[in-house]
Structure formats: C-alpha cells, structure tokens
Amino acid sequence: MRRAIVPLLAFCLGLLGIVAAAFVMLKPQVTSVGTASVGGPFTLVNQDGKTVTEKDFSGATHLVFFGFTHCPDVCPTTLQQISDVLAALGPKGKNMKVAFVTVDPERDDPASLKAYLSSFDPRITGLTGTQDQITATVKAYRAYARKVPDKKGEYVMEHTAIVYVMDAQNRFLGALDISRPADQTAAELAKKI
To answer: N or C: which end of the chain has fewer CB within 10 A?
Structure first.
C-alpha cells in the first residue's frame, strides 16, 4: 500500500504544480491606465507686474484658461462665461481664483492684461512672461498655441480653449463645461470646491 501512496502523492503534487503554473500564466494582467499629467510649475508675471507661481493658486480649486487680449471672440466670450459662473457660485466661490495665461506675450504685457481684464470678474488674474516661460506653461498643461499670420499683415493666435479645473494641490480635475447656463455650470463646479 505504501508503494501505491508514494506515486499517487507525487502525481497529486505534480498536478497541483501544473494547476498553479497555469493559474499564474493565464491570470489576466492588470495594468494601470493612470491619468495624464496636466499642469505643473510655472513662474510668470501678473497684470500688476508681480511674479506669480502655481503655488499662488494652490489651496483652493481654481481655473486656468489660455488666451490672448487680441482674441476676436473666443477669449472675451469665455472670460465672460467664467465671470458669470463665478457670480453664480455666490459665497461658495469666494476663494475661487482664475489664471488667464496669455499665449501672446509679445503683445500682452502686464498693462494690456490689466486693461483687458478690467471688464471681467476681479478673481481672474492675467499672467504673462517671456516666450520661453509661456511655451513651458502651455506644454505643462498639454495645451496648444500657434501664431498664425492674418490678411492684414498682423497675426492671431490659435490656441486651446479649454477651461481647466485644478484642485487645491494643482492637480487636474477636468475641463469646465461652460456651454450650459452659468447656474448649471456653477452647480457642477461647486461639487469640486
């Protein structure tokens, strides 16, 4: 009987090893999809000529929008929509900040940003800098900006028109949908504050 148990035991152990190996080899591989890194460190100058970094926006949910003061329609419309959303937030949005980062530092100095932004909510801060600083900031946010000559011998800027929602630690939460009425957009944003 002992002679029969030893081969049977060996067979069972071998079978168990094969099953374990098959389980390991056939187990579905779990891979992490992760999220794209959006945002990052920047050093720019605001409309008052003061040096500003991303740390000046941390501590509360905030918005980031790329544009330029010579923009014929998208930028002023978006900035007005942002202003309307901020107003619709009421007291809930008192700590909200918005960074309006120019993609046209050649024309958008602090004084022109200050004059331009005077028509919008005062929580919107205009940011400019050197071309290299702006290019690095655009890249950090995975945005797009390109100078395009126009028929008058001037130029316009093609650029990303997303309103980025960033959390208190400067992490990307998503894009703000400003195509809806301001109160609906504010209600959505209020969930992230």
So the answer is: N
Q: Is the pTM of this model over 0.90?
A: no
Tell me the domains of the chain and their CATH numbers: 43-190 (3.40.30.10)
Q: Which single residue is written with the structure tokens 């126009």? A: 150
Beta carbons within 8 Å of 85's beta carbon, 6+ residues apart: 176, 178, 182, 185, 186, 189
Beta strands in the chain (DSSP E): 43-46, 51-53, 62-67, 97-102, 124-128, 145-149, 155-159, 163-166, 172-175
Tens-binned pLDDT, residue by residue, of the chain (193 aa): 555 554 444 444 344 344 343 333 444 443 444 455 899 999 999 999 999 999 999 999 999 999 999 999 999 999 999 999 999 999 999 999 999 999 999 999 999 999 999 999 999 999 999 999 999 999 999 999 999 998 888 999 999 999 999 999 999 999 999 999 999 999 999 988 8
